[in-house]
Amino acid sequence: MRDVVQLDAEYLGRLRRRDPDALQSVVDEHGRRLYRAARGMGHSATEAEDLVQDVFVTFIDSVERFEGRSQVGTWLFGILHHKSQERRRAVAREELNDPVDQIFESQFDGRGSWIRTPAAPDRQAGAAQVADAIRACLDGLSPAQRDVFQLREVEELSAADAGKILVLTITHIGVLLHRARTKLRMCLEGKGWGRLR
Amino acid sequence: MMTCKEVSTLISTGGFSDAPLTRRLGVRLHLLMCRHCRAFRRQLEAVARSARAAAAVHETEPSRDFESKIAASLKR
Ligand SMILES: [Zn+2]
User: Fold this and answer.
1) Which class would CATH give A125-192?
2) Which residues of chain A have pLDDT under 50?
3) How far is the CA of B8 from the centre of ligand 1 (A)?
4) Residues A165 and A151: beta-carbon distance below 8 Å
5) Which phi and psi angles does A114 have, rounded to 5°?
6) φ, ψ for residue A108, nearest 5 deg
7) 3-state secondary structure of B20
8) What pTM was computed for the model?
9) Residues A53, B55: C-beta atoms closer than 8 Å
């Protein structure tokens, strides 16, 4: 029987060499637990996947400093917490201006009236088709916009509660929600919402 | 009289329920008379409904090719 230390050294050596099977096995072993934890921390589905990918990239880059297989899980969760906080801080720093504000403005005439009636969603489109379109459109949002949209519209939290979680003012939550909704409306209209009726 | 832009911005930022009474009444009056803004509100509700339906599908599990996607990005 090989002892544990030897097994660890071999496994870590394979990870350091970026052996494809070793990489796949570390992701298979820990990926889903990390994903569920990221969702539990309030990250949206898309963002949780980004975050977990980021965790593994950081892990592989730092695997040199790493000593034993038994601690891999703990190490990965530590990275996840760190990345999650980093992401929250990036949310708080989001730019005050976004080009989408001008797109919204351009939908009104000089007297502030809608130029064109906003499109109603296509009732004929299947649920799976709509879900695919939404997911693709959510990818076009900034992490901050995605967070706010997730908490306000999917989890249906109040602006005050979303503000507490994301450490943002209610006004900032409103601006981010407005931008997220504007981008999603534009994106969904681009995918044919309201064309068939 | 509030404009479509003012009404739609207030609805879109979610600030409607926190707005002063006179603003809320202004929005209600405008919505009664303006089918464009009613369509806008319906559109926002539909976006939210679709997002909730899409989220319910993979609430606790990542997408199917999650692990292979990540492993592929590490191999690069
Ligand atoms: Zn109007």
Assistant:
1) mainly alpha
2) 1-2, 196-197
3) 7
4) yes
5) -55, 130
6) -120, 150
7) coil
8) 0.68
9) no
